[in-house]
Amino acid sequence: MIAEHLRLSPGPVDLTALPTDATPGFDGGKSEGKEALEELGSELSDLQERLYAEGRSGGTRSVLLVLQGMDTSGKGGVVRHTVALVDPQGIEVTAFGPPTEEELAHDFLWRVRRALPAPGRIGVFDRSHYEDVLVAKVRGLVEADEVERRYDAINELEAELLAQGTPVLKCFLHISPDEQRERLLKRLDRPDKHWKFDPVDIDDRQLWPQYRAAYETALERTNTEVAPWYVVPADKKWYRNLAVGLLLRDTLVHLGPTWPDADVDVEAQRRRLLDEEPVR
Ligand code: AMP
Ligand code: MG
Fold this sequence. Notes:
Strand content: 5-15%
Region (Disordered): 1-31
Protein name: PPK2 family polyphosphate:nucleotide phosphotransferase
Bound molecules: adenosine monophosphate, magnesium ion
Order of helices and strands: HHEHEHHEHHEHHHEHH
Oligomer: single chain
Helix content: 40-55%
Distance between the termini: 54 Å
Radius of gyration: 21 Å
CATH topology: Rossmann fold
Pfam families: PPK2
GO biological process, one term: polyphosphate metabolic process
Domain Polyphosphate kinase-2-related: 30-246
CATH architecture: 3-Layer(aba) Sandwich
Number of strands: 5
């Protein structure tokens, strides 16, 4: 299982020691990887539909996929290429930007709780509550002791979610600073990508060591048994998309949603159609 390759070991985290361009747990190259993702699509679709059906039949379980990573690490790409393999009706994507004034007036988890997936849905967070211990820490938006409190609050929330039947799959998309530079340059080269370019991305890039340190602490402090972190090498987009897909598949398999029993008398309904007067 891919999880064994990507699951972050407990204890202190050194991101410079974890690869950004490897393909752990997958032997093939790019074309095999793209094929594998396509094949995964039908399996993901089937599992998602079962979960959705369960939710429509009184089930309360759901899945939350948390995507974190530096700018250009491919959070949006995973949504487009992996999450999009399943029926969009079963997906709830939330992208978290800087908090609004209203959001700032509440605890940092307020907006997160409001965005949690409904029963039967796969929720996807493109950035998440982790920004509140990453950018908030690096840019000094809150006091250090508030950051400390937040790690615990996050762990409590995630444990609560699992207890209610919503596993939280946390993926850190790990790119190298060189790869990010290439990707940012590409955005500047392409007029169709200019809208994505934000000068703040270069400011953030210049704080790479600070972000790395903040990530290392956040990953270590929130790498719990109930909601472990997966560090996904993300320099190769095809591998990143496949790896998150496999992790999501395995999370859904583990959840094991089954088709709900019909609450109608199937035979009686079949007879109604077979015996009906012609309809025109
Ligand atoms: P993007 O993902 O490129 O659309 O950018 C979203 C921006 O929102 C990033 O610059 C994040 O750092 C910022 N952001 C997200 N969550 C928070 C937060 N809780 N506090 C401050 N900034 C945030
Ligand atoms: Mg950005």
